[in-house]
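request received
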Amino acid sequence: MFNLFSGNKNKQQSEELSSMQQELAAIEQRWYTFLSKLEEKYDEVLTAFEAEAPSIYEQDEDYAKRTYHRFKSGMDGQLTAIRKKMQDTAEVQIRNTYRKYDTASYNSPYEWRNRCLDAEHQWEERTNAKRDAAFAKVEQAVSEDLEVQYANILATYEQIKNKFTCTQCGCKLTIDRLYFISTYITCPACNTQNTFEPGTQIRTLEWLARPLAEHRTKHLYEQYQQHVYNGRHDDRVAYRQGKEAESMYYEKYLRAMFDEMNNIIPDKREQNELFYQRMLADHKR
Amino acid sequence: MFKKLLKDLLGNDEEKKEPQPSANAANNATAHNQHEAEEEEEEEEEEYEDNGYGDDDGNAYDPQTHHGLHYTQAQFDAEVDRRVNEWKADEEDPDDADIRNAKINFGNSLYREWNRNVSESQYMKFNQQYGSTALGYAVFGSTKHDAANPLLEPIHGITLQDYAAASSKMASGVGANQIAKALGVEQPVWEEASTLWISRMQQDNTFTVTNLFGTYFGESAQHPKLGGLAAAQSESGKANLEKLATDRYFYEELCGARQAAYEYGLDGAQWIMENYGIALGDFQNVAVKYMTERNAEWNSNEIMHFQNYQEQKQKEYAAKFAAEQGGNVADDVEF
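response:
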């Protein structure tokens, strides 16, 4: 007597379960298709970025390369928009659906949720890796241009260094160094203090020096990166040894990078050395 | 009651082993604190209880160090040192970084013990100040100008205040020649000083120069020689700048818009100039003002509120810029 309605109840539960499974299977299939389509769009943006970025950089006459950076920022914004769309959809279609059925005490679609969210995480990891690779490739390509910019500055300096004359007596004045800011040059004949104005191109040397030095010592930076210690902190011996090796490679890179900076702008050697000491201290801290 | 107060001050159940705060410090405890201690005697021992973000917890604190006034900093430091030394005795050869981190952790937990009902906002102020000091960093908004600091010595007669105000003015469109003229120096002197001030910031690992630069940047309007210099600005630009400085929501909206603009390949600073007539330097002046106020009156609730507002505005402007550019690349991908 007491089992009179249990058959109907089981049947109802079975129908509900079947309906839920059908719905989840359909969502799961659409989810994979959706991720695949979004990844195609992601790849399109990266392909366009890799193709266009070097020429935009080269044609950008602004010393700070603002047009290039705006382009890069815009492309990155598109990638972010795609990722955001994926995340918003995962929230609505996957997590909300899971929450809806998770309220039932039976057959929580645990595995379904995990499969879908695994696909989301894999999508994130894959696209992040693609993005990093594409941006690194473009950075490598555009950093080659730093040498060209530096060569152009040296060429301009060669042209102007012997063409400067005293405003008072007309005596030819020698510009013995690559001055990147306005500088007083005293006339050896009449002692008049003249002002040498280096021009827009040579002024960029101050901002070019560090990225150029970093570009020239990139191999040492990569070597250092390979030795960054990420091991366990509680293994004191391994920790000490790991940190010492890391510091050694960092110092090697930093010294070489600042030596390059000093070669590019010898006038800033004194200030550069203090900056070097600070960066070294920061790393040890 | 008094015994309970001392117990709270010492922050340890093993009262007999603890160094006693001086009688003077104990007597200085405010009536409010004593009243609190009385109430606590009647209650169960409780862990830290938040009074609510940003709420005034009623206690008195030093405005610079953010320590409670019912003990001295020397007492606090002595107790932290004692705990660090005790910890060191059990540790296997800790290095400088370990000891520094331990000091910060013990200091933060001791602060909660000695300021039992501290609000989260007050705790955050202390946490920021104490941690930065332990690491040797200056804190923005509370950094003092120590004239004896060689890194703050004027360069060719040009002070950090001059340089920061000049930087602010130049970011708003004032020319370098106008700056040099107003400061009474020739162009080569100004340019060399400018280069050397940047070097000073690079070599300063305490961030004192950089923090003070930020403060003086935001005070450029009060600079005696440079305050009056201004690039041409439209009437609407002036009105918008005034609104920016007084209407926090307007400021957060434009921050969000600027960020969204960059994400869509636009020059965010230029976009604000074109649409609101506000130059980058003027905008940053206002940003410094809000940042200084935020650090001085740390209020986690308020910070979160404005952060959410800015994010919401950034989304709205992102949608606007996307529409102007014909939509996002993946708009046609439907689930």
